[in-house]
Design a protein that fits this description.
Elements lengths: L2 E6 L2 E6 L2 E5 L3 H4 L2 E3 H8 L3 H11 L4 E4 L2 E5 H9 L19
Antiparallel strand pairs: 1-2, 2-3, 4-6, 5-6
């Protein structure tokens, strides 16, 4: 099958065979993505660990073929934020202050 991609105002249409699927427009963020190699360097882990994170922790890896995988930057940030339980919004406290 051949994939066709066309823009219609603020939505993107992906045509696969005879089916049309409307997806959210991510054109601004589509170019910002990390390859598996970049993720390995970023986190200091192996590809096997990344695959385990995808399976067990929901790492949003987009895979076209086994050799063609990546993660969009926005999706990675959202995934990382799911692990932050407490967000401190109070004033910043300098624990190294010499005023004591």
């Amino acid at each position: 099958m051949i994939l066709f991609f066309q823009m219609v105002k603020d939505k993107s249409i992906l045509t696969y065979g005879f089916k049309n699927i409307t997806t959210k427009n991510k054109l601004n963020n589509m170019s910002e993505r990390y390859t598996i190699k970049q993720l390995q360097e970023l986190y200091g882990v192996t590809e096997r660990t990344l695959n385990n994170w995808k399976k067990n922790k929901g790492l949003p890896i987009t895979q076209i073929t086994p050799q063609n995988k990546w993660v969009y930057k926005e999706d990675l940030e959202n995934w990382e934020n799911t692990f932050r339980k407490i967000k401190y919004t109070g004033p910043r406290i300098d624990i190294m202050s010499s005023d004591q």
